[in-house]
Design a protein that fits this description.
The chain is mainly α. It has one domain: Up-down Bundle (Amino acid/polyamine transporter I). The protein contains 17 helices and no strands. Helix 3 runs parallel beside helix 9 and helix 3 (40-68) crosses helix 17 (416-441). The N and C termini lie far apart (45 Å). It is a multi-pass membrane protein.
Length: 442
């Protein structure tokens, strides 16, 4: 068992798991949803949904992972005892590979903008870095995958954990420094008002509640086996409910910090004459926000703007890397566990596969990019989360779950977690996720 590797410390696991959850979606997705859905009203509902929906599914993945000490495919096969577990795990592995394939492209853009910002600091102008072109996209996508490959190849404690305990504090320091600086600029006060002052008339709006559920679910990197695999590396003496709570709190905290940075920054951009609303009068979000609105703001700030831009894109690149290493680890763990491959060979094989898929997307961008994103994040991920609830709530024997939880928490049976979680993940979570999926499709 020890040959699989394990996290050497509690903080190492928390930072690695939180890093998996903290990705580009947190940084640009959460803030604009806040602005579009009643400001603090959305933040409040997001916090509620994170613990009512995402946390129970997160715990299901962690418990399954540590109990079975295996990758997603083998763990679910052991629980089901039939092909259903193998099929579900395989779909999860395929989904996470496809997510990483488009994620690497976007992360490559972050790297190119980071290098552009650094060269601007020393007055070197390389317009190729920020021009949308196939060669630029391929080069930086490959560069990002190489960095991800190097980290995962180092293993659990010497690769994933070692880098997570460096990258996550750096991310938190950068985002805090940027919040402080942006808050001193003209227009920031209006952004803070937008973020903090709730419009309570929208709190129980159906669209807001479903958006909050979706953001909470997807922001914690659930459904595709990343948390399950990380759970398989947790030491037996650790208290799983407490660890899961810590991961959820860090992930939620970073999402809120992102809102504290992005929303005021957008209104600072508005004060500097930058357009921040789209044709539908909504705040610009997604890639347009990151690669048009904010760069225009940085440019209007003069030389200091080049330094702020470098810090911002360093933040984005770190957020991308902490997520990508967990995604790559899912299929790598399967090849190491199930096929007996050495980690180095497994990591290279999966990285090469992801590169080929990413290259296909780059070369057929208009046809494939949006399609892959929709198929994985809007269809596959919520359905996988639903099935994981079925495994934890209906297929896996409750006494076996209890025995696993007693490792690290002997009195778990008398605690609040065991009184609520089993029936909650059995009945409530599947229903809510099914409703969210129905809404996203129809």
């Amino acid at each position: 068992m020890s040959a699989r590797g394990q996290f050497s410390s509690r903080i190492g696991f928390i930072l690695a798991a939180a890093g998996s959850a903290v990705g580009l979606g947190n940084i640009w997705g959460f803030p604009t949803k806040v602005a579009e859905n009643g400001g603090a009203a959305f933040v409040l509902m997001y916090l509620i949904m994170a613990f009512l929906l995402a946390y129970p599914v997160l715990m299901a993945e962690l418990i399954i992972g540590r109990a079975k000490r295996a990758n997603m495919i083998d763990a679910l096969r052991q629980i089901s005892g039939n092909v259903f577990g193998t099929i579900t795990g395989s779909i999860g592995a395929i989904t996470v590979i496809l997510i990483l394939s488009f994620y690497a492209i976007v992360a490559g853009w972050m790297l190119s903008y980071l290098i552009d910002s650094v060269t601007n600091i020393v007055s070197i102008d390389l317009p190729w870095l920020t021009e949308d072109s196939i060669p630029r996209n391929l080069v930086f996508m490959l560069g990002f995958l190489v960095v991800t490959c190097i980290v995962v190849n180092g293993g659990v404690s010497n690769g994933i954990e070692r880098w997570s305990v460096r990258l996550m504090p750096t991310l938190l320091i950068l985002i805090t420094m940027l919040i402080i600086y942006v808050s001193t600029l003209d227009g920031a006060a209006e952004g803070w008002s937008k973020f903090l002052v709730p419009d309570f008339s929208k709190v129980f709006d159906t669209g807001l509640m479903i958006d909050a559920m979706g953001q909470a679910f997807f922001s914690m990197s659930l459904g595709v086996g990343t948390m399950l695999v990380y759970g398989s590396y947790i030491q037996k003496h650790e208290n799983l409910p407490r660890l899961g709570t810590s991961v959820a709190l860090v992930d939620i905290g970073v999402a809120v910090l992102a809102g504290m940075l992005i929303i005021p920054a957008m209104y600072v951009a508005l004060a500097n004459g930058v357009q921040i609303l789209d044709d539908s009068n909504n705040l610009i979000s997604g890639p347009s926000l990151i690669f048009q609105v904010l760069p225009s703001l940085f440019e209007s700030m003069g030389y200091i703007g080049t330094i702020v831009a470098a810090a911002f894109f360093a933040l984005m690149a770190i957020a991308a890397l902490t997520s990508s290493i967990s995604m790559l680890e899912v299929p790598v763990a399967f090849l190491v566990d199930n096929k007996g491959l050495k980690r180095s060979k497994a990591t290279l094989l999966i990285t090469a596969l992801v590169f080929v898929l990413s290259a296909l997307i780059v070369l057929n961008f208009e046809q494939l990019f949006g399609l892959v994103i929709t198929a994985t994040t809007e269809y596959s991920q919520p359905l996988l989360g639903l099935v994981l609830c079925v495994f934890a709530g209906w297929i896996w024997r409750r006494d076996q779950i209890l025995e696993e939880l007693k490792n690290g928490c002997e009195d778990i049976k008398t605690g609040l977690f065991w009184k609520i979680w089993p029936w909650y993940v059995k009945f409530v979570c599947p229903l809510v996720i099914a409703l969210m999926f129905y809404r996203s499709v129809f």
